[in-house]
Amino acid sequence: MNQNLDTIVELQDALMQLKDAEGRLSGIPDWMRELHDEHEARKSEIEALDQAAEAATRDRRTAESAVADAQEKLKKYQQQINKVSNQREYGAILQEIDTVKSQISTSEEAAFAALERSEVAARELAAKRESFRELEERYATELARWEGEKPGIARQAEELRGRVADLKARVPRNLLSVFERLLARYPVSALAETRLMERPGGRQREWHCTACNYRVRPQVVVEIRNGSGLVQCDSCKRILVLPPAEQA
Ligand SMILES: [Zn+2]
Fold it and tell me: In angstroms, what is the span from residue 216 Cα to ligand 1's centroid?
């Protein structure tokens, strides 16, 4: 029985569980992912409609104040027309009055179009908000459930951190640094099982590294089982472990 190897196996297992717990704490849990994406999509639809409604309201106000300004001008010209002293001035003011009247009608049309746009947007917004309500409630419920799970996961992560520190303290420093270097290189697993495999065509069976398929010498298998160090695959350098049946 290889005590150090057993500890390394346990350590990797604890590190993986810790990574998983930390990932779950910082991100959206898988069971909420679909609902979360749907919620985000509906939310941005509503935001876009909201912006369209606001833009229409702004356009309407701009057009309405243009109408008011033009009406003010019109009033002024109508007062002036009574005081003109000759035909030329009269003609000029009539010209101004025509211009200002056409400005009024253009701005009135713009104000009306903007009003229509803002009404359409408001109706769509109301309908969308109504249909969004059910999703929003479901989302709030799941979010509360997720918040409720977090403290448990945080406690679990805390325990795992303690366990990782414990296990690390039990492995000789040089072996630990080999393991850590390999785990940095192979984040999924620094370990590889070695397995007895049939040679194609032949009757002979050979040990192989299951990660890279490289051959493992039989004496190495004995060393994995009975030694106290770590045995690495000659090719991929992963730490070799025996299949569960061979570990006794
Ligand atoms: Zn290998």
Answer: 9
Please give the distance, rounded to the nearest whole angstrom, from the Cα atom of residue 18 to the centre of ligand 1. 26
Ligand 1 centroid – CA 188 distance (Å): 14
Whether pLDDT at 48 is above 80: yes
b/e map of 86-119 (b: 16 or more CB within 10 Å)? eeeeeeebeebbeebeebbeebeebbeebbebbe
pTM of the model: 0.65
Most distant CA pair in the chain, distance? 124
Burial of residue 202 (number of CB atoms within 10 Å: 0-12, 13-18, 19+):
exposed
The model's pLDDT over 173-215, given as tens digits with 9 standing for 90+, comes to 999 999 999 999 999 999 999 998 887 776 778 999 999 999 9
